[in-house]
Design goal:
8-stranded mixed sheet; Rossmann fold; alpha/beta
């Protein structure tokens, strides 16, 4: 195979003059056309900086290439050194011949332009399409990445879509130009396993049809096993090991590679679930959180006059409860209503109907009912406030004063989440990603909540950091008898922390019960599909195939009311919905594999 990209001696630094700080030290690798190179390593290892250097975007982030060559074979057959190419030459190559999928879609999409406008721009600039041709191509691109109601969502703005959907929009934009080289920086971090499998199928299809070379940056070793031909391991800006996939996974030489592989959470199909909590019999213990018939609908309009065409049934008649000291995990694909359910409990979204109640059996503790830990610790902490001010925010918002007792609680919580005492005067940017998430947990606990809602709270963390944060959450729960509502798409993480699991699909719970029962013996077609799609290191070089089944729409006509739920009891604590099944209604096939 011909070399598509050859990188030798790449050195990258940030700053100028005496403040220059090298962060990438002499990286070497080759990539052939149609080959996939996976770059793995923890945060700060230099993975993303290396990727940004290839298309010279590092120039716009305060960095610069200090030394080395990056020889790229263009479509015209010429070999150019990307490290020294002119800005005008890079403008033609960037986006057209070298595509990039960024990790954080909210900072990569323009908030004042619709999704349709931003995707069609790629077709206009790179393919010269305009008018209806550009719209048709844009619609096809959205449908390829499995977004329901694609025609309607062309008019949406980024803030109107979930994180997983935004990531799919970014992927659609990158694939629009059929680039010769595609750099994917954690492209599936915010996606559930079934949608993740479809994205991998799209990337595999692009490789097969166009010979695109792929640089895949990830911390998910299961994904690496399924797609990579070769693996490069980075630590502190250096390549510590690289080679063929099987050799790296089966016989790693470097201690750091061995550490990474050991830290990978393994999904065992429900065999290794938590057994430190017994769900009491009915009436024996009162639930901390009880949700009954929660429904969230958003009005849908169309046309210049914005006439009503119905409503988006984001969450429909959801019922569950969580006991003291218990974790209920809510799983499902992006857009299924997981985060909407969580936000409704916080009052961030107003339910259309239904009720929920929070009971604290120890009112003397002055517990505040519900607090939340968000997915992205970088975005949920105000960079202008020091740690003391960040921790004081929820206290002040609840109408209390920051006194000596509150400051003592700050110090105690910082110590409990493993942050040094001098953290109190530091700012968010001075902490690593894992430390920031620990800080978010401490902030949520400042008002002594009864329920902690964790919305993808560990998905942005490296696997080794992720394991430590999960251990911390479990310890805190056992100490404080907290009820956790854990929203996640990562089945291995769910297995690690959940006592019970609720599977959400198209806004409705389709299966709920004890974690061991749901994960080891799934009864609903969609649950089986989710579990079948979990990547593992045992499945190498998978043949990813596109699922062409219709994606269910959540748009319903005016006055529509869904049929009443009917449930089948599968065990002592295991139920599955059997009527009005949106998954079967859409002609999906049970046990569908990738």
């Amino acid at each position: 195979m011909s070399k598509l990209l050859s990188v030798s001696g790449l050195k990258v630094g940030f700053g100028r003059g005496d403040a220059l700080r090298p962060v990438v030290h002499g990286v070497d690798f080759d990539l052939a056309a149609g080959e996939t190179l996976a770059i793995v390593g923890e945060s700060g290892s230099g993975k993303s900086v290396t990727a940004l250097s290839i298309n010279r975007l590092v120039d716009y982030g305060g960095g610069r290439i200090l030394d080395g060559r990056m020889d790229f074979l263009t479509a015209g057959g010429a070999v150019i050194n990307l490290a020294t190419a002119s800005d005008r030459r890079m403008e033609k190559i960037r986006g057209g011949e070298i595509g990039m999928i960024f990790q954080e879609p909210m900072t990569s999409l323009n908030p004042v332009l619709t999704i349709g406008e931003q995707i069609s721009e790629a077709f206009r600039l790179q393919r010269g399409l305009t008018g209806q041709a550009a719209r048709a191509a844009t619609l096809e691109a959205l449908e390829r990445v499995r977004i329901a109601d694609a025609a309607r969502r062309l008019g949406y703005y980024p803030h109107q879509l979930s994180g997983g959907m935004l990531q799919r929009v970014m992927i659609a934009m990158a694939l629009a130009t059929n680039p010769r080289l595609l750099i994917a920086d954690e492209p599936t971090t915010a996606l559930d396993v079934s949608v993740q499998a479809q994205i991998m199928a799209l990337l595999a299809e692009l490789r097969r049809e166009t010979g695109t070379g792929l640089i895949f940056i990830t911390h998910d070793m299961g994904l690496v096993a399924g797609i990579a031909d070769r693996v490069m391991v980075m630590k502190e800006g250096q390549v510590v090991e690289q080679g063929p996939l099987d050799r790296i996974l089966d016989h790693p030489d470097h201690p750091y590679t061995q550490h990474l592989l050991k830290a990978v959470p393994h999904f065992s199909g429900g065999r290794h679930v938590r057994r430190d909590h017994r769900r009491a019999s009915a009436g024996e213990t009162t639930p901390t959180l009880k949700v009954e018939g929660m429904t969230v609908r958003f009005p849908a309009t169309a046309g210049l006059l914005r006439r009503s065409i119905g409503a988006i049934h984001a969450v429909e008649s959801v019922d569950f409860d969580v006991m003291p000291g218990e974790t209920l995990a809510i799983v499902g694909e992006s857009g299924s209503g997981k985060s909407t359910t969580a936000r409704a409990l916080l009052g961030l979204v107003k339910p259309s109907r239904g009720t929920f109640s929070v009971l604290d059996e120890r009112p003397a503790n002055r517990r505040k009912p519900v607090q939340m830990v968000f997915q992205n610790p970088y975005a949920s902490l105000n960079p202008r406030l020091d740690v003391e001010s960040l921790l004081a925010e929820p206290v002040l918002a609840s109408g209390e004063r920051v006194d000596a007792a509150v400051r003592a609680r700050m110090a105690a919580l910082l110590e409990r989440v493993g942050l040094p005492a001098n953290s109190i005067r530091r700012y968010a940017h001075e902490f690593s990603g894992g430390q920031r998430q620990r800080l978010c947990i401490a902030r949520a606990l400042m008002v002594n909540p009864a329920v902690l809602v964790l919305d993808e709270a560990v998905s942005a963390l490296d696997v080794s950091v992720q394991a430590k944060v999960l251990d911390l959450l479990i310890d805190l729960q056992n100490e404080m008898k907290l009820a956790y509502l854990f929203v996640s798409h990562d089945m291995a993480v769910v297995e690690r922390i959940a006592h019970r699991v609720a599977v959400l699909y198209a806004g409705r719970i389709v299966e709920i019960g004890a974690a061991q029962a749901v994960l080891s013996s799934p009864q609903h077609a969609y649950t089986r599909r989710l579990i079948a799609a979990v990547p593992t290191m045992e499945r190498r070089r998978e043949i990813f195939e596109l699922d062409t089944a219709t994606i269910p729409t959540l748009l319903r006509p005016p006055g529509y009311e869904p049929p009443q739920d009917h449930w089948r009891v599968c065990g002592e604590d295991h139920q599955v919905r059997i009527e009005g099944d949106p998954y079967k209604d859409q002609n999906h096939v049970a046990d569908a594999r990738r």
